[in-house]
Each structure stands twice: as C-alpha cells, then as structure tokens.
Specification:
Length: about 190
C-alpha cells in the first residue's frame, strides 16, 4: 500500500505546543481543542493574531520546532508499516522553512520517509495524485475533503480539535489512534 501522512497534528503534536506557547508568551489559556477558527470566533481578532504568530513560531523557528513531541504511537506505527513493506510519504502544506525543520525533526527521530511540501495554503491534491496513494491520513477535515476523488481512502485522525466529528463523509474513516493507521475501514483489519 502507498500511504500518505500529514505531518503537523498527525506525526507531531503541534496543537499541544501551540497551546503551551500561547500560555508562555501571552498568558492566554487556550484549550488544545481550540482550532484557529474557534480562537478567531470566540476570542476576537487580537487573539487570532496571537494564534497565527504562535503557529508561525511552532512551524518555522528551530527553537520552538525542536520542542515538538511525536503524537502518541506515531513513531512506533510508522516503523511497523515500513517493516511490513508499505510505502509511506509525508505530504504537508508547509512553507519551505517549515518543511526544512520538519525534515530535520524526522531525521533527529530516525524516521526516514520522503517529505513533500505542497506549499502553504496550497492543496495537497497535485502531490498526492502524482504519488498515486491508496490512503491519506490528516487531522484536518477540510484538507481531506479536498482529496475526495483523488485518493480512494482517506483517514481523519482524531485529535481534540476534531473530536466532535463522528461521520466525516463518504470515503473518510475517522481514525482514533495510530494503532488504526494502515488498517482497512471494514472492521479495521490489518492491510496486507
């Protein structure tokens, strides 16, 4: 199987670090589950600007990027899938600076996977089309819906910010943990 993985929010816990930095830098209590739209809607434009600033710090500065922790179970499951001869690719809508830091993070954690950056605010569809993926996993439902009809199987990785989504739509399976990544939707049995 050819499996694509997002990076921020799927492999690394960027949401938790953003919440921590909002507290450290701005003394702002923002729950991890508060995605940027919730911050903007409920906390106003000033809080949203702070969120965007913290987001850039996490994604694009080495000092903060190095503080990113892997999502629970990610590194172990990636290793298992590679050992089972699945082809894994990380596809991220990252800026060149964020992509460079992500590659460094992967190397430091001994994860040797191709990392393709589609570009900031750019659809991943052209990249995943070229890769001819069987599956793609992301924690961002909007980015997954852009891949409907492009990738036959999509997995929405459950995170606090999307925990309210029970039915993500046709061809999108809600995946509750890394143990379920790389398993088929019908009963979530192991892929060969």
């Amino acid at each position: 199987m050819r499996i694509g993985l997002d990076f921020h929010g799927l492999v690394v816990d960027s949401h938790g670090l953003k919440a921590t930095l909002l507290k450290e830098l701005y003394n702002a209590e923002v729950p991890v589950e508060a995605c940027r739209k919730l911050v903007q809607k409920h906390c106003g434009q000033k809080a949203f600007k702070r969120y965007r600033h913290v987001q850039r710090l996490v994604y694009e500065t080495k000092k903060y990027h190095e503080r990113l922790e892997p999502v629970s179970g990610a590194l172990r499951r990636i290793q298992q899938l590679v050992e089972r001869k699945h082809e894994l690719f990380i596809v991220s809508s990252s800026s060149p600076q964020a992509a460079s830091l992500a590659r460094q993070w992967l190397k430091a954690h001994e994860v040797d996977l191709p990392f393709i950056a589609s570009g900031r605010r750019v659809s991943k569809a052209p990249v995943v089309t070229e890769l001819r993926l069987d599956w793609f996993y992301d924690d961002d439902l909007l980015k997954l819906t852009q891949l409907m009809g492009v990738v036959p199987n999509l997995g929405l990785f459950r995170q606090p910010h999307n925990a309210n989504i029970i039915d993500a739509g046709p061809n999108i399976v809600v995946v509750k943990s890394w143990a379920e990544v790389g398993k088929t939707p019908s009963g979530l049995t192991e892929m060969p």
